[in-house]
Design brief:
This protein has 423 residues and is an alpha+beta fold. It has 15 helices and 21 strands. The strands form six sheets. A six-stranded mixed β-sheet has the order 10-2-1-14-21-20, with helices on one face. Helix 1 packs parallel to helix 10, helix 1 runs parallel beside helix 15 and helix 11 packs antiparallel against helix 12.
Protein backbone atom coordinates (compact mmCIF):
# COMPACT_ATOMS: atom_id res chain seq x y z
CA UNK A 1 0.00 0.00 0.00
CA UNK A 2 1.50 3.40 -0.92
CA UNK A 3 2.90 5.52 1.89
CA UNK A 4 5.93 7.62 2.71
CA UNK A 5 9.18 6.22 1.34
CA UNK A 6 12.74 7.27 2.05
CA UNK A 7 15.37 6.35 -0.53
CA UNK A 8 18.89 6.73 0.82
CA UNK A 9 21.44 7.14 -1.97
CA UNK A 10 21.03 8.70 -5.42
CA UNK A 11 23.24 6.52 -7.56
CA UNK A 12 21.53 4.67 -10.40
CA UNK A 13 19.94 2.22 -7.96
CA UNK A 14 18.63 4.96 -5.68
CA UNK A 15 17.29 7.01 -8.58
CA UNK A 16 15.61 3.95 -10.05
CA UNK A 17 14.08 3.14 -6.65
CA UNK A 18 12.82 6.71 -6.26
CA UNK A 19 11.27 6.71 -9.76
CA UNK A 20 9.62 3.34 -9.18
CA UNK A 21 8.46 4.53 -5.74
CA UNK A 22 6.76 7.60 -7.21
CA UNK A 23 5.19 5.52 -9.97
CA UNK A 24 3.83 3.14 -7.31
CA UNK A 25 2.16 6.06 -5.51
CA UNK A 26 4.63 6.58 -2.64
CA UNK A 27 5.53 10.03 -1.33
CA UNK A 28 9.30 9.82 -1.87
CA UNK A 29 12.14 11.62 -0.12
CA UNK A 30 15.55 11.03 -1.73
CA UNK A 31 18.76 11.50 0.27
CA UNK A 32 22.24 11.78 -1.29
CA UNK A 33 25.48 12.66 0.49
CA UNK A 34 27.12 14.11 -2.66
CA UNK A 35 26.21 17.35 -4.39
CA UNK A 36 25.12 15.53 -7.53
CA UNK A 37 23.45 12.21 -8.29
CA UNK A 38 24.91 9.30 -10.21
CA UNK A 39 27.14 7.52 -7.71
CA UNK A 40 29.85 5.53 -9.46
CA UNK A 41 28.43 6.35 -12.92
CA UNK A 42 28.42 10.13 -12.87
CA UNK A 43 29.61 13.21 -14.70
CA UNK A 44 32.86 14.89 -13.65
CA UNK A 45 33.70 18.47 -14.66
CA UNK A 46 37.37 19.19 -15.42
CA UNK A 47 38.25 22.72 -16.55
CA UNK A 48 34.73 23.16 -17.88
CA UNK A 49 34.87 19.86 -19.79
CA UNK A 50 32.21 17.23 -19.03
CA UNK A 51 33.98 13.92 -18.46
CA UNK A 52 32.79 10.75 -16.76
CA UNK A 53 34.26 9.02 -13.74
CA UNK A 54 34.49 5.92 -15.93
CA UNK A 55 33.39 4.62 -19.33
CA UNK A 56 30.19 2.60 -19.06
CA UNK A 57 28.98 0.32 -21.83
CA UNK A 58 25.30 -0.55 -21.83
CA UNK A 59 23.99 -3.57 -23.70
CA UNK A 60 20.81 -4.29 -25.58
CA UNK A 61 19.98 -6.75 -22.80
CA UNK A 62 19.75 -3.88 -20.27
CA UNK A 63 15.98 -3.84 -20.55
CA UNK A 64 15.15 -2.37 -17.13
CA UNK A 65 17.66 0.45 -17.54
CA UNK A 66 16.34 1.31 -20.98
CA UNK A 67 12.75 1.16 -19.74
CA UNK A 68 13.40 3.57 -16.87
CA UNK A 69 15.38 5.93 -19.09
CA UNK A 70 12.33 6.17 -21.30
CA UNK A 71 10.03 6.76 -18.31
CA UNK A 72 11.98 9.86 -17.23
CA UNK A 73 12.22 11.28 -20.73
CA UNK A 74 15.76 10.17 -21.57
CA UNK A 75 15.28 8.66 -25.03
CA UNK A 76 17.73 5.75 -25.47
CA UNK A 77 17.54 6.08 -29.26
CA UNK A 78 18.84 9.64 -29.06
CA UNK A 79 21.28 9.32 -26.17
CA UNK A 80 22.90 5.97 -26.99
CA UNK A 81 24.84 4.86 -30.07
CA UNK A 82 23.63 1.33 -30.81
CA UNK A 83 26.06 -0.99 -32.60
CA UNK A 84 26.25 -4.76 -33.10
CA UNK A 85 28.75 -6.25 -30.64
CA UNK A 86 32.24 -5.46 -31.87
CA UNK A 87 35.50 -6.13 -30.06
CA UNK A 88 37.63 -4.62 -32.82
CA UNK A 89 41.37 -4.14 -32.33
CA UNK A 90 43.35 -1.25 -33.87
CA UNK A 91 44.46 -3.44 -36.77
CA UNK A 92 40.82 -4.14 -37.69
CA UNK A 93 40.72 -7.69 -36.37
CA UNK A 94 38.31 -8.78 -33.65
CA UNK A 95 35.02 -10.49 -32.92
CA UNK A 96 32.26 -8.63 -34.78
CA UNK A 97 28.71 -9.93 -34.56
CA UNK A 98 26.41 -9.19 -37.51
CA UNK A 99 22.75 -8.26 -36.93
CA UNK A 100 20.30 -11.13 -36.71
CA UNK A 101 19.25 -13.99 -34.44
CA UNK A 102 21.77 -14.20 -31.58
CA UNK A 103 22.96 -17.79 -31.96
CA UNK A 104 23.47 -17.49 -35.70
CA UNK A 105 25.10 -14.06 -35.29
CA UNK A 106 27.56 -15.42 -32.72
CA UNK A 107 28.46 -18.42 -34.84
CA UNK A 108 28.94 -16.25 -37.93
CA UNK A 109 30.99 -13.68 -35.98
CA UNK A 110 33.31 -16.40 -34.68
CA UNK A 111 33.62 -18.01 -38.10
CA UNK A 112 34.58 -14.73 -39.76
CA UNK A 113 36.98 -13.58 -37.05
CA UNK A 114 40.36 -12.98 -38.70
CA UNK A 115 43.48 -14.05 -36.87
CA UNK A 116 42.08 -17.25 -35.37
CA UNK A 117 42.89 -20.59 -36.91
CA UNK A 118 40.15 -22.98 -38.00
CA UNK A 119 40.86 -25.13 -34.95
CA UNK A 120 40.58 -22.17 -32.61
CA UNK A 121 37.24 -21.10 -34.07
CA UNK A 122 35.88 -24.63 -33.84
CA UNK A 123 37.09 -24.88 -30.23
CA UNK A 124 35.21 -21.73 -29.25
CA UNK A 125 31.99 -22.79 -30.98
CA UNK A 126 32.22 -26.21 -29.35
CA UNK A 127 32.78 -24.68 -25.91
CA UNK A 128 29.89 -22.22 -26.35
CA UNK A 129 27.62 -25.06 -27.47
CA UNK A 130 28.56 -26.98 -24.34
CA UNK A 131 27.79 -24.02 -22.09
CA UNK A 132 24.42 -23.59 -23.81
CA UNK A 133 23.60 -27.30 -23.54
CA UNK A 134 24.25 -27.11 -19.78
CA UNK A 135 21.98 -24.08 -19.48
CA UNK A 136 24.94 -21.74 -18.94
CA UNK A 137 25.42 -23.23 -15.49
CA UNK A 138 28.53 -24.60 -13.81
CA UNK A 139 29.85 -25.53 -10.39
CA UNK A 140 29.67 -22.41 -8.17
CA UNK A 141 33.30 -22.64 -7.06
CA UNK A 142 34.72 -22.48 -10.60
CA UNK A 143 36.70 -19.46 -11.80
CA UNK A 144 36.53 -18.21 -15.38
CA UNK A 145 40.11 -19.35 -15.87
CA UNK A 146 39.16 -22.89 -14.78
CA UNK A 147 36.03 -22.87 -16.94
CA UNK A 148 37.95 -21.90 -20.08
CA UNK A 149 41.30 -23.56 -19.42
CA UNK A 150 40.90 -26.02 -22.31
CA UNK A 151 40.49 -23.20 -24.85
CA UNK A 152 43.50 -22.21 -26.96
CA UNK A 153 45.64 -19.39 -25.59
CA UNK A 154 44.65 -17.04 -28.43
CA UNK A 155 40.96 -17.34 -27.50
CA UNK A 156 41.64 -16.66 -23.85
CA UNK A 157 43.82 -13.65 -24.72
CA UNK A 158 41.60 -12.15 -27.45
CA UNK A 159 38.12 -12.88 -26.07
CA UNK A 160 37.73 -14.47 -22.65
CA UNK A 161 40.05 -12.21 -20.65
CA UNK A 162 38.83 -8.88 -22.10
CA UNK A 163 35.18 -9.94 -21.83
CA UNK A 164 35.68 -11.10 -18.26
CA UNK A 165 37.43 -7.98 -17.04
CA UNK A 166 34.96 -5.73 -18.90
CA UNK A 167 31.89 -7.47 -17.48
CA UNK A 168 33.07 -8.48 -14.00
CA UNK A 169 36.03 -6.12 -13.41
CA UNK A 170 37.80 -9.11 -11.91
CA UNK A 171 40.72 -11.02 -13.48
CA UNK A 172 39.74 -14.35 -15.03
CA UNK A 173 41.91 -16.24 -12.56
CA UNK A 174 39.73 -14.97 -9.67
CA UNK A 175 36.38 -14.26 -11.38
CA UNK A 176 33.20 -16.27 -10.87
CA UNK A 177 32.47 -18.57 -13.81
CA UNK A 178 28.80 -18.75 -12.74
CA UNK A 179 28.31 -15.00 -13.11
CA UNK A 180 30.37 -14.90 -16.31
CA UNK A 181 28.14 -17.53 -17.92
CA UNK A 182 25.00 -15.66 -16.85
CA UNK A 183 26.32 -12.50 -18.50
CA UNK A 184 27.12 -14.43 -21.68
CA UNK A 185 23.67 -16.02 -21.71
CA UNK A 186 21.76 -12.78 -21.29
CA UNK A 187 24.01 -10.65 -23.49
CA UNK A 188 24.74 -13.00 -26.37
CA UNK A 189 21.86 -15.44 -26.49
CA UNK A 190 18.71 -13.90 -24.96
CA UNK A 191 17.16 -12.41 -28.08
CA UNK A 192 17.74 -10.18 -31.10
CA UNK A 193 19.74 -7.09 -30.19
CA UNK A 194 20.62 -8.31 -26.70
CA UNK A 195 24.35 -8.23 -27.46
CA UNK A 196 24.27 -4.78 -29.07
CA UNK A 197 26.68 -2.23 -27.64
CA UNK A 198 24.98 0.95 -26.40
CA UNK A 199 27.58 3.69 -26.09
CA UNK A 200 26.55 6.95 -24.40
CA UNK A 201 26.57 9.98 -26.71
CA UNK A 202 26.27 12.30 -23.69
CA UNK A 203 27.84 12.43 -20.24
CA UNK A 204 26.67 9.86 -17.72
CA UNK A 205 24.93 12.65 -15.82
CA UNK A 206 22.79 13.51 -18.84
CA UNK A 207 22.10 9.85 -19.61
CA UNK A 208 19.87 9.15 -16.58
CA UNK A 209 20.74 10.92 -13.28
CA UNK A 210 19.85 14.48 -14.38
CA UNK A 211 16.64 13.50 -16.23
CA UNK A 212 15.60 11.27 -13.31
CA UNK A 213 16.18 14.07 -10.81
CA UNK A 214 14.17 16.51 -12.93
CA UNK A 215 11.37 13.93 -13.31
CA UNK A 216 11.25 13.36 -9.55
CA UNK A 217 11.28 17.09 -8.78
CA UNK A 218 8.40 17.69 -11.20
CA UNK A 219 6.33 15.04 -9.42
CA UNK A 220 6.82 16.40 -5.94
CA UNK A 221 9.55 14.16 -4.58
CA UNK A 222 11.64 15.76 -1.84
CA UNK A 223 15.30 15.89 -2.90
CA UNK A 224 17.94 16.24 -0.20
CA UNK A 225 21.34 16.41 -1.87
CA UNK A 226 24.56 17.02 0.08
CA UNK A 227 22.92 15.21 3.00
CA UNK A 228 24.60 12.23 4.59
CA UNK A 229 22.12 10.23 6.65
CA UNK A 230 23.42 9.77 10.17
CA UNK A 231 20.78 7.60 11.85
CA UNK A 232 18.26 4.99 10.79
CA UNK A 233 15.94 3.83 13.57
CA UNK A 234 12.97 1.48 13.88
CA UNK A 235 9.97 2.86 15.75
CA UNK A 236 7.77 0.79 18.07
CA UNK A 237 4.82 0.98 15.67
CA UNK A 238 6.85 -0.29 12.72
CA UNK A 239 7.70 3.04 11.12
CA UNK A 240 11.26 4.16 10.40
CA UNK A 241 13.06 7.33 11.37
CA UNK A 242 15.70 8.74 9.05
CA UNK A 243 17.59 11.46 10.91
CA UNK A 244 14.42 12.09 12.94
CA UNK A 245 11.95 12.14 10.01
CA UNK A 246 9.37 9.35 9.98
CA UNK A 247 8.67 7.08 7.00
CA UNK A 248 6.57 4.00 6.36
CA UNK A 249 9.41 2.31 4.45
CA UNK A 250 13.04 2.79 3.48
CA UNK A 251 15.12 1.73 0.48
CA UNK A 252 18.82 1.67 1.37
CA UNK A 253 20.65 2.32 -1.91
CA UNK A 254 24.06 3.43 -0.63
CA UNK A 255 27.43 1.80 -1.25
CA UNK A 256 27.97 -1.36 0.85
CA UNK A 257 30.17 0.30 3.48
CA UNK A 258 27.64 3.05 4.14
CA UNK A 259 24.80 0.53 4.23
CA UNK A 260 26.76 -1.57 6.71
CA UNK A 261 27.19 1.47 8.97
CA UNK A 262 23.49 2.31 8.99
CA UNK A 263 22.40 -1.29 9.67
CA UNK A 264 25.10 -2.32 12.14
CA UNK A 265 22.71 -2.47 15.12
CA UNK A 266 19.46 -3.00 13.20
CA UNK A 267 20.56 -6.10 11.27
CA UNK A 268 24.06 -7.21 12.35
CA UNK A 269 24.24 -10.25 10.03
CA UNK A 270 23.16 -8.24 6.98
CA UNK A 271 25.59 -5.47 7.92
CA UNK A 272 28.47 -7.94 8.28
CA UNK A 273 27.74 -9.44 4.86
CA UNK A 274 27.80 -6.01 3.22
CA UNK A 275 30.95 -4.99 5.07
CA UNK A 276 32.77 -8.17 3.99
CA UNK A 277 32.66 -7.33 0.26
CA UNK A 278 35.98 -6.51 -1.33
CA UNK A 279 36.55 -4.20 -4.28
CA UNK A 280 38.34 -3.72 -7.58
CA UNK A 281 39.31 -0.28 -8.92
CA UNK A 282 38.89 1.08 -12.43
CA UNK A 283 41.20 3.77 -13.79
CA UNK A 284 40.34 6.01 -16.74
CA UNK A 285 43.08 8.01 -18.46
CA UNK A 286 41.84 10.84 -20.67
CA UNK A 287 44.34 11.77 -23.38
CA UNK A 288 44.07 14.52 -25.97
CA UNK A 289 45.52 13.24 -29.24
CA UNK A 290 45.28 16.22 -31.58
CA UNK A 291 42.34 15.69 -33.93
CA UNK A 292 42.68 11.89 -33.98
CA UNK A 293 39.61 9.96 -35.06
CA UNK A 294 39.74 6.22 -34.42
CA UNK A 295 38.21 3.76 -36.90
CA UNK A 296 35.49 3.00 -34.36
CA UNK A 297 34.13 4.67 -31.24
CA UNK A 298 35.51 1.84 -29.10
CA UNK A 299 38.53 -0.36 -29.74
CA UNK A 300 39.81 -3.34 -27.79
CA UNK A 301 43.47 -3.27 -26.76
CA UNK A 302 45.89 -6.02 -25.88
CA UNK A 303 46.61 -5.54 -22.18
CA UNK A 304 49.73 -6.91 -20.52
CA UNK A 305 52.33 -6.31 -17.82
CA UNK A 306 53.39 -3.01 -19.43
CA UNK A 307 50.10 -2.26 -21.23
CA UNK A 308 47.41 -1.30 -18.69
CA UNK A 309 44.30 -0.54 -20.77
CA UNK A 310 41.87 -3.08 -22.20
CA UNK A 311 39.77 -0.57 -24.18
CA UNK A 312 40.01 2.92 -25.65
CA UNK A 313 37.00 5.13 -26.41
CA UNK A 314 37.00 7.92 -28.97
CA UNK A 315 35.03 10.57 -27.11
CA UNK A 316 34.97 12.74 -30.22
CA UNK A 317 32.60 10.22 -31.79
CA UNK A 318 30.46 10.18 -28.64
CA UNK A 319 29.59 13.83 -28.25
CA UNK A 320 32.92 15.02 -26.82
CA UNK A 321 35.80 17.09 -28.22
CA UNK A 322 37.58 15.76 -31.29
CA UNK A 323 40.70 13.77 -30.47
CA UNK A 324 39.82 13.08 -26.82
CA UNK A 325 40.58 9.43 -26.05
CA UNK A 326 39.60 7.59 -22.87
CA UNK A 327 41.77 4.59 -21.96
CA UNK A 328 40.06 2.19 -19.55
CA UNK A 329 42.02 0.06 -17.09
CA UNK A 330 39.77 -2.51 -15.40
CA UNK A 331 40.98 -4.77 -12.61
CA UNK A 332 43.37 -1.91 -11.99
CA UNK A 333 44.74 -2.65 -8.52
CA UNK A 334 48.31 -3.37 -9.74
CA UNK A 335 48.35 0.02 -11.48
CA UNK A 336 46.84 1.83 -8.52
CA UNK A 337 49.65 0.30 -6.46
CA UNK A 338 52.23 1.34 -9.07
CA UNK A 339 51.13 4.97 -8.77
CA UNK A 340 49.89 7.75 -11.00
CA UNK A 341 53.11 8.50 -12.88
CA UNK A 342 53.82 4.86 -13.69
CA UNK A 343 50.24 4.38 -14.89
CA UNK A 344 50.35 7.46 -17.11
CA UNK A 345 53.72 6.54 -18.61
CA UNK A 346 52.61 2.98 -19.37
CA UNK A 347 49.28 4.13 -20.85
CA UNK A 348 50.97 6.64 -23.16
CA UNK A 349 53.49 4.03 -24.24
CA UNK A 350 50.67 1.59 -24.95
CA UNK A 351 48.76 4.27 -26.89
CA UNK A 352 51.73 4.97 -29.14
CA UNK A 353 52.46 1.27 -29.70
CA UNK A 354 48.84 0.21 -30.34
CA UNK A 355 47.48 3.27 -32.12
CA UNK A 356 50.62 4.75 -33.68
CA UNK A 357 49.48 4.93 -37.34
CA UNK A 358 46.06 6.22 -36.27
CA UNK A 359 47.28 9.12 -34.11
CA UNK A 360 47.11 12.68 -35.40
CA UNK A 361 48.97 14.93 -33.02
CA UNK A 362 50.97 14.77 -29.81
CA UNK A 363 49.52 12.96 -26.81
CA UNK A 364 48.62 15.16 -23.86
CA UNK A 365 47.14 13.83 -20.62
CA UNK A 366 43.92 15.64 -19.70
CA UNK A 367 42.92 13.70 -16.58
CA UNK A 368 43.39 10.45 -14.68
CA UNK A 369 40.35 9.33 -12.69
CA UNK A 370 40.51 6.44 -10.24
CA UNK A 371 37.40 4.80 -8.80
CA UNK A 372 39.03 2.80 -6.01
CA UNK A 373 35.80 0.98 -5.18
CA UNK A 374 34.37 0.80 -8.67
CA UNK A 375 32.92 -2.70 -8.26
CA UNK A 376 32.92 -5.57 -5.80
CA UNK A 377 35.33 -8.41 -6.55
CA UNK A 378 33.11 -10.92 -8.34
CA UNK A 379 34.67 -14.14 -7.03
CA UNK A 380 33.16 -17.65 -6.96
CA UNK A 381 30.46 -18.46 -4.38
CA UNK A 382 30.44 -14.87 -3.15
CA UNK A 383 27.98 -14.10 -0.34
CA UNK A 384 26.12 -10.89 -1.23
CA UNK A 385 23.56 -9.16 1.00
CA UNK A 386 19.90 -9.83 0.15
CA UNK A 387 17.22 -7.29 -0.73
CA UNK A 388 15.33 -7.75 2.54
CA UNK A 389 16.95 -6.28 5.66
CA UNK A 390 14.03 -5.86 8.08
CA UNK A 391 10.27 -5.26 7.76
CA UNK A 392 9.75 -2.30 5.38
CA UNK A 393 13.53 -1.85 5.08
CA UNK A 394 15.04 -3.10 1.83
CA UNK A 395 18.31 -2.66 -0.05
CA UNK A 396 19.17 -1.82 -3.64
CA UNK A 397 22.47 -1.61 -5.48
CA UNK A 398 24.72 -3.53 -7.83
CA UNK A 399 26.16 -5.38 -4.82
CA UNK A 400 22.81 -6.85 -3.75
CA UNK A 401 22.37 -10.60 -4.20
CA UNK A 402 21.48 -11.45 -7.77
CA UNK A 403 22.71 -13.07 -10.95
CA UNK A 404 24.67 -10.11 -12.31
CA UNK A 405 28.04 -8.56 -11.55
CA UNK A 406 28.39 -4.88 -10.57
CA UNK A 407 26.70 -3.30 -13.56
CA UNK A 408 24.21 -0.50 -14.16
CA UNK A 409 21.56 -3.06 -15.10
CA UNK A 410 22.21 -5.03 -11.92
CA UNK A 411 21.76 -1.86 -9.85
CA UNK A 412 18.54 -0.87 -11.62
CA UNK A 413 17.02 -4.35 -11.42
CA UNK A 414 17.74 -4.55 -7.71
CA UNK A 415 15.95 -1.24 -7.20
CA UNK A 416 12.89 -2.39 -9.13
CA UNK A 417 12.79 -5.57 -7.05
CA UNK A 418 13.25 -3.65 -3.80
CA UNK A 419 10.32 -1.31 -4.40
CA UNK A 420 8.13 -4.15 -5.66
CA UNK A 421 8.75 -6.05 -2.42
CA UNK A 422 7.22 -3.21 -0.40
CA UNK A 423 3.76 -3.60 -1.93
Amino acid sequence: MPGTLAVIGAGWAGLAAAVEGVRAGHAVTLYEMAEQPGGRAREVRVDGLALDNGQHILLGAYRETLRLMGKVGADPAQLLLRLPLRLTEPDGRGLQLPPGPPIAAFALGVWRRAGWSLGERIALLRAASGWAWRGFRCAPQLTVDELTRALPVALQRDLIEPLCVAALNTPAAQASATVFLRVLRDALFSGPGSADLLLPRVSLGELFPAPALAWLRARGAALRLSTRVQTLERQAGGAWRVDGDEFDAVVLATPPGEAARLTATLAPSWSACAAALRYEPIVTVYVQAGDTRLPEAMLALQAGPQAPAQFVFDRGQLGGPAGLLAFVISGAQPWVDAGREATLAATLQQARAALGPLLRGELRVRQLITEKRATFRCVPALARPPVAIAPALVAAGDHIDGPYPATIEGAVRSAVAAVASLR
